[in-house]
Task: structure prediction
Amino acid sequence: MKEIFLIRHGRQNSKRCNVDVELAPEGREQARAAGKRLQTYGIEKLYHSDLVRARQTAQIINEFLQVPCEELTGIQEIDFGGLTGKTEEEIRSEFSDFQKERSLHRSDLRYPGDGECGEDVVRRAMPKIRSLCEKKEDRIAVVTHGGVIRSLCAFVLESNQKNKLKFGIDLENASFTELLYDENRELFFLERFNDFAHLEGHPELLRSGWITSLERQTS
Result:
């Protein structure tokens, strides 16, 4: 049985949508907390996406693990299209119709302006995850992104991608989502989701103390 830990990157230093920037100080603290916890997990190799926040998160985690670390293409964050680089206020103003439709969870919406939808993410990211299951290592950690984690979980559970945003209102930075892969049956299992026990007791490191999710904005 292979174990793959999908780790969301630490907090970035900008609230603008999906800009490729470094970690905030809190993001570094989140990564350190994740690294300390992972020391006991027997991780054999670490991968990360090509975005700065994921690479820096992996580097900090690896200060504790000291395992081979490698960039993995195809697991970058979902393409937010026209929302990329926008502030919350700009998104609410310019894409209010899209946000309203998205909040209803009726379809796997593609982000406006040539962005991606959940199925797009699965098509590029799932083959990468499957390739990791063919490696010799049994326990692997992958530092990736919230949109990728949600889409992969929906796929593993054979749920329509329109439901991906129903997996946890706030997907915490530096949280763990664990997939198990049974090579004999060629089946994936979702073992844990959005596990952030290493951040509990530190409200300043949680999403609720930094940014308001769409679901909480509309509730």
